[in-house]
């Protein structure tokens, strides 16, 4: 949408990428930032490509009144991208109005109805009009049951979750401390878990090299895996319940099934690597047939390993 407005603008537009200045949401005292779920985007700012307006000294402040709970509040959007709007003669000038989109800021204790909205900025009056409806509803915190733990795990290479100072959605205001990917592949220790009411799966309070890095959802971490080079042969059992994967399942790697186990039932395979997950006894084996790798499979699907 934005790229269409770049044509015929060389005289007025310097086309380049730059990062949006990260601004805090300016709301009434007592309201802090909070990343809430996927809809809110978990970010107080978002990198976008913005056209640079020729001779412009600074970007305009994009702000508007938005319903937060049951009160109208003026909030500033620190994350936005826009392009100049041609005038009635089809010409763009440095005083042109702007049209683009803004990302819904994170507001502690509230969630937006949408992740982003379109806006129109009038340069002469320095006013912003939101072209879509944006409002925030209050999030009701739920009770959490805590339990002491003593675990060692690894963060997945693609964890899909981030570290927070408190469990998101609890009665405490949660603030992201670190992106999950910052610790991808790292070994962490866990001293406590928390399960929100109505859920069965926990959040873990994690430490890296003895320093607390925050709470993260359980699916972002896995048991550590120890690998050992070996030279063995084995036979796939006649009715395997497991399949061959590109990596050990439930490891830090994203896994993809390469072959069904039954495809190679009763076939003899060679093995050059084994992997044991912490807390389990049966290994996984990396298998080959006629020199071609067919993947990793759970040891219970093999027999006559020697």
Automatic annotation (TrEMBL):
Residues 147-221, 228-302 form the GW domain. SUPFAM superfamilies: Prokaryotic SH3-related domain. It comes from Pediococcus ethanolidurans. This is GW domain-containing protein. Keywords: Membrane, Signal, Transmembrane, Transmembrane helix. The keyword Transmembrane helix applies. The chain crosses the membrane at residues 23-43. The keyword Signal applies.
